[in-house]
Design a protein that fits this description.
By secondary structure, the chain is mostly helical. About 80% of the residues lie in helices and about 0% in strands. The chain has a domain of about 100 residues: Tetratricopeptide repeat domain (Serine Threonine Protein Phosphatase 5, Tetratricopeptide repeat), CATH 1.25.40. Helix 1 runs antiparallel to helix 3, helix 1 runs parallel beside helix 4 and helix 9 packs antiparallel against helix 10. It is elongated. The chain starts with a helix and ends with a helix.
Amino acid sequence: MKKKKVMIFFCSMIFITGATFFLYKKFYSYPLEKKALKELIYAQKYLSEGSIDKALNQKKLKIPYLGFYGIVTKYPSTKAGNISKFYAGICYYKLGNYKESIKMMNNFSAKDEFLSSIRYGMIGDSFTQIKNKNEALKNYIKAANIRENEITTPLYYYKAALLTFSMNKYRDSKFFLEKIEKKYPLFLYKDNVDKYLMFIENKL
């Protein structure tokens, strides 16, 4: 009898949890997603036009839409709120607020590997701007290794190579450049890769 009561209790809890989740999605989460998505579309429009301040709208400009900062603040638990952190990070970077860019990118949850790579790359760029070269290098390496591909992998190895070159770490720079030379012959800056390798060979 006691076991039966326990089973009934657990079955009831499962039903209540499931029903609560369904009601949350239907009557709370979905309407919020819809509102957040509408705001996101307008913020993206401002960004595509190059209106960075309006796209971010941290200063609450007199425009009828929230902007990425407002979406992150008002709809943090939505998918639109999450991707707005990524866009806000880009806006902060373009506005020269590198610490806020790092903060937004770190709070952004990226399931897509390509976006995740760009996320770490942007964090690396921000650390480079504030002269924290060691943190920049860590993030460039992460960005390059998220998933091997013809676009982001050689790009962030190249940034890591230039950074270590600027730090006079020529062996490290050579390591990254040789990775590009061997595996990515169609890389956009391949001629520069060859020039840097020649210089480093003479230096070493």
